[in-house]
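Hi all, a correction to my earlier message: I attached the wrong file for Beta-lactamase-related domain-containing protein. Here's the right sequence:
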Amino acid sequence: MKQTVPVSADVQQLWPGGRYGLGLVERPLTCGGTYWSHEGGDGGYITLNGVTDDGRRSAAVSMSEARGDTPEHILDQKNAASTLIDHALCAGAPSTP
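and the right structure:
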């Protein structure tokens, strides 16, 4: 499941720096390293999650109000949730220059 390939340029908008493999997405952390995710959503909700590669930290964000009226709103919400996941997984971690 962790054998990944780079995502297409279109998908990079949703998963910047992301790589995909058999249901899992590998995404970079701002503090260094990566995390693994399998997010989803449908008709009014979005759920994002992440687990560090070593399995020591995990986080989940669920939004029950998904603004799917425009692609920009969808991207804004996904980016906000992704930022929350990143901050939670990087909390207390030393930053990598």
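Sorry for the mix-up. Helices lie at 9-12, 71-90.
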